[in-house]
Amino acid sequence: MPLDTEKKLKRQSEDVETEKQHLKAVAKRTYLGQKKQTIDEAEIVRFLPMVHKIAQRVITYLKTSLAYEDLVSAGTIGLVKAARDYDPSFGAEFKTYAYTRVKGAILDELRSLSLLPSSINEQVRKTKKMSQEIYRDTGTFPTDSELVDRLGISVEDLYETFANARAQHFLSIEGFMSGVPGGGEFLESSDAKEPGERMEKAELIEELTQAIQQLSEKQRQVVLLYYQQELTMKQIADVLEISEPRVSQIHAAALFNLSLRLSKEDYGG
Description:
Order of helices and strands: HHHHHHHHHHHHHH
Number of strands: 0
Radius of gyration: 26 Å
CATH class of the largest domain: Mainly Alpha
Distance between the termini: 77 Å
Shape: elongated
Number of helices: 14
Structural class: mainly alpha
Strand content: under 5%
């Protein structure tokens, strides 16, 4: 090969390598630039009330040895990580992304504990099965007295079972109830990117609406006041002029019924 040709090819090769290195440098600067565009400290502070809101909701649902402060701490770490990892190019609002990460961090903290022993899970299972049988036979949710008679347990034990079921299915219940209109500023966005997802979401909300209408009047009032009006248990107790523990019982019973109505695998739907 002539010397001039060899030199020319060598220069071309060097030029190609230089161009590759240049492109790598540009890509790296672009990436680092995007990573710097994370949520700043002021924005993190602005979303701290969301952490407390989610932690309080978890405490309302679950019987856990973890203190409220422990859940807030876990959620705050989730919020900080969300601010660090957030990428606006994915198209999701930070509010939606942060809600998911905070809730996930709190639930991860809870998963380190054994929330319900097997004996309690068995009682929940028996109560569900009996409720399903009554629902199939009558087309309506069973009353508390019907379940007490069929199961041979006290009213207090029944409410305890409802509360345990609420804890057991916290994730699915929260997913269902996020579809309630007016469900809160910090609930996850109901917008789905794909048409099929939007249709499925719309069908779920419609089914949820019908299920709420089937609840007893008192259960329906508590559900709407808690999720739509976002009142606390204490505020609902004041509105309905009943005790706060009674509100919690009604709330647990309502969600037990809704979970039965919306659990398609239980009804072959």
